[in-house]
Design a protein that fits this description.
285 residues, two-stranded parallel ribbon, 4 helices, rod-shaped
């Protein structure tokens, strides 16, 4: 049997205090650890939020930068397009100016043509008011008729071979089937003349006016057409014209130039050539 010695009085209190202190320290250590872990979590959350905010700000800056770059690219493209349009417009200016001049020239020619037609119509009416002379089938071979006024004269089938008709007025004359071969018709006015089937072979029509003359089946073989005016001639073919001499030095309507394979500026070129010919003759000794 184990004997128990009696505990001395006063020895139990320090042990209790030590135990209590140990418990306190343990609790304090646990609380400190918990508080430390809480602080670390708070700091981690703060760092996460800060990083998230920085990332958001970086994304916002990137989007702003991309938007600026996009706007800059759009502006650059717009400026490039505007510059291209400006250059294209500048390149088109000569063309537009040429077209404007061409339109103005066409209007000028149209006005001159209208004036010419009005004058011819007035002339036609005045001529028709006269009683035409009836001299058809007559023989005027080698006749001297320079400057004669034969307006609206009936000269059908008349023999005018080698007739001298320089500067004669034969406008509106009836010359169907007339023989005008070798006739001298320099500067004669044959506007509106009826020359269907007429023989004009080897006739000298230099500077003659045949505006709106009827030339159906007329023989122009060997005729001299230098400076002749054949505007709006009727019922004539390119092959008829090309049988004449110096046909490239005559004046034609714009629509007939294409049939003759002549350029659009043919009449202006002929005018210059004829002026040069006159000048050369003037200065010749």
């Amino acid at each position: 049997m184990v004997s128990r010695e009696p505990i001395p009085s006063g020895t139990g209190k320090p042990t209790i205090w030590l135990a209590a202190a140990g418990v306190f320290l343990l609790l304090a250590g646990g609380m400190w650890y918990a508080w430390d872990q809480h602080q670390k979590r708070v700091e981690a959350e703060a760092l996460r939020q800060e990083a998230q905010q920085q990332a958001s700000e970086a994304q916002a800056k990137q989007r702003a930068l991309e938007e600026t770059e996009r706007k800059t690219e759009i502006e650059r493209q717009r400026n490039t397009e505007l510059e291209a349009k400006r250059k294209a417009e500048a390149q088109r200016q000569p063309e537009l100016e040429a077209r404007r001049k061409a339109d103005a020239e066409a209007q000028r020619k149209a006005a001159l043509e209208a004036k010419r037609r009005a004058e011819l119509e007035a002339k036609r009416k005045a001529t028709l008011a006269r009683q035409p002379d009836i001299v058809s089938h007559a023989d005027f071979g080698t006749a001297q008729l320079q400057g004669a006024d034969l307006r609206s004269a009936n000269l059908q089938e008349t023999d005018l071979r080698s007739a001298q008709l320089q500067a004669a007025n034969l406008s509106f004359a009836q010359l169907q089937a007339a023989n005008l071969s070798f006739a001298q018709l320099q500067g004669a006015d044959l506007s509106f003349a009826q020359l269907q089937g007429a023989d004009l072979s080897f006739a000298n029509l230099q500077g003659a006016i045949l505006t709106e003359a009827q030339l159906q089946e007329a023989n122009l073989g060997g005729a001299n057409l230098q400076g002749a005016i054949l505007l709006e001639v009727k019922a004539v073919t390119a092959s008829q014209i090309k049988r004449a001499t110096n046909w490239r030095l005559a004046f034609y309507s714009d629509d007939f130039l294409a049939e003759l394979d002549l350029p659009a500026d043919h009449n202006e070129t002929v005018e210059q050539k004829l002026a040069e010919i006159v000048k050369e003759k003037t200065i010749m000794p």
